[in-house]
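Note to self: keep these together.
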Amino acid sequence: MSGSTQEAGAVGRRAGLRARIPRAIDTALELLYPGDASGGADSHQARVEARALGAATLAAAVAVLVGIIVFGPGTHPLWGTISTGSIGTLLAGLVAIASSIMEQLRAPLRVPASWSPRAARTQRIVGIAAVALVHGGIAVIGIGMVFAVLSQGFFGVQLDQLTSTVASVIVSAGTAYLVTVSAAKITTAELSMLLSMFLTGGIVVAMLTTTDAKWWHYHFSELGAGTDVSGLVFNLTLFLGGLLLAAFAFTLLIDLEAWAAGAPPSRTRNVRAVAWGFQIIGICLAGVGIVPVNLNLIVHNTFATGMAVVFGVILIGLRWLLDGFTRVFLLFSDVVLAAIVFAALLFWPLGYYNLAAFELVVAGVIFAWLIIFVRHVGAAVPTGAFASEDLTASPERSR
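Structure:
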């Protein structure tokens, strides 16, 4: 009996010790970090921030592992084929893609009223892939340019394994955090900003890396005609930008249908035509990247011309396609159309500047119009239209 009593006492002491350890940890945490234990974790933004920190921590751990494997004994340059910058940039791109996919998969499926759930799921797959790749592209462009500039400022510097690993950890963790926060709020406005950032960054990199110093004597498509890094960057930028524009058209349709549901009835309003117009522009933009000007001039120009024609139709027909939309924006659209016509006249027949300059002006005007258009759509959507994320309303809603 005494042996059983001693054994039971030992078990009780172990159980008591196991119970005291968590209490001791909780007490220590309360002393170090006083306040609400939940920290408002029930809010959506708090959960996003928690996931972003988790993604950053995981990315940092992966970067440490890669640094131990890749950055062996010796030193490495700041920029080059195998360098601190190239490995850090590659890691940032991969981390951005993974973080974007994981965060987007958490979002509920939003289905436009005029689409079937099956078509919406297909579009969702394309959208997730496009947004993830564009996040990765922005990360590669931004971090790559930072490392390239630093390599010129610290010309000839060599970094050891520890320093190179720390640099990779910083860029990987920072990228994971920012991309997770960005991917958690994929709205029409967010997509338009991502599109503008990605296309601008990709074209700037193509300009800086081209070996054809006289490309601007011709047109922008000349940047994609080379077989060097510049051509690859330019064509890939247009292709991914086209995919992202298709995803943008999907979310835009959801916003426009929510606006149309609360607007006065109209026989001419057709929000689907506007969305399909942006879909076609996205396909044409991707086509321009897939078929460079030196590969097939006719097909390349067909995509480019189709893109311009469809945008012109949207710009002119907006007052009927979106009957009841804000008058101030319709007036702004007329001003944009007049600016494009004026720029075209300066190019031909006046010959004030060449085709590359004309394309640059028109691209800037279109981006400005797109951003303001998205902001007006968001402002016109009735308050509470997206209180439920499952937008599977009846197809009989007003178009």
